[in-house]
Design brief:
274 residues, alpha/beta, Rossmann fold, 11 helices, 45% helix
Length: 274
């Protein structure tokens, strides 16, 4: 006889996830509005919003672009050495990535591979907000005069020490801070018989913030008379029309992202962020 059991842990995680979204709605609308206005003005002026995150935060950069319902103007930076966890062990394993994201100087090396220009902006994701590379990227961006928006867990940030030599945390560096509303430690569900909680919520919080930023930025661009070229699904607009729109997105992204490799007028990454 099959015993029917109530999926208690699953429902508890769902409740925690709803609470994250409620906290974002209740506390983060103002910084989201300020960030979306910054991004819209950056994109309208043909600048780039560089989107960066290490570890699992790479997912957020890809959710911003390219993704159905997204648009050029956001430039995702996915450094595979610190964001490819598929192998876990062996080459490109988790130990290597976790080591590299704490290496002093690696953030500067990443930025040297990109041409940053006046008028660009940064959106940086880190749920902990304490690892060296993301803090270093933010510090160098600020040293070059570029505004930085951070999406992080303020509860986690307040509960842990920085791993950056400066002792600073991402939330202390950024111009605009958006809380992903996850609790310190991220995992949310305690199960009897397990010493550690399971079921993180930072991803759902960060992805919610991404799409709130994305939709409000698109709305502001329309208000500014610069409607974005939106990546849409061919399954609902027709194969031909969808393919044509995809080509328009490719061409618009190519036109915009060439700025990230154009040395003309580019900022020089300084030797130090001080």
């Amino acid at each position: 006889m099959t015993v029917q059991t109530r999926p208690d842990a699953a429902l508890r995680w769902l409740s925690e996830a709803r609470a994250v979204l409620d906290r974002i709605e209740g506390t983060e609308l103002d910084p989201i509005e300020r960030a979306a206005d910054l991004f819209a003005r950056t994109i309208a002026a043909d600048g780039l919003v560089h989107v960066f995150g290490s570890g699992h935060s790479r997912m957020n950069t890809e959710e911003m672009f390219p993704r159905i319902g997204s648009f050029p103007g956001f430039h995702p930076i996915a450094e595979l050495a610190i964001s490819n966890h598929v192998g876990v062990v062996g080459p490109n394993g988790l130990r290597q990535a976790m080591f590299l994201e704490k290496v002093d100087g690696f953030g500067r090396i990443i930025l040297q591979q990109i041409k940053l220009h006046p008028g660009d902006a940064f959106l940086i994701f880190s749920s902990t907000g304490i690892n060296g590379v993301v803090i270093e990227v933010a510090l160098y961006a600020k040293a070059m005069g570029l505004p930085v928006v951070a999406v992080t867990s303020l509860d986690h940030t307040r509960s842990t020490d920085s791993r950056h030599p400066s002792g600073r945390k991402l939330a202390e560096v950024a111009d605009i801070v958006i809380d992903n509303a996850s609790h310190a430690g991220d995992a949310a569900v305690a199960i009897e018989g397990l010493p550690f909680k399971v079921g993180p919520t930072s991803s759902i919080g960060a992805i919610a913030v991404v799409n709130m930023l994305k939709t409000r930025t698109a709305e502001r661009l329309v208000e500014l008379g610069m409607p974005p070229v939106v990546l849409t699904s061919p399954h609902f607009v027709g194969q031909t029309a969808g393919a044509e729109q995809l080509e328009r997105v490719y061409e618009e992204y190519f036109r915009r992202v060439t700025r990230a490799y154009d040395p003309d007028g580019a900022l020089v990454v300084p030797e130090t962020y001080e």
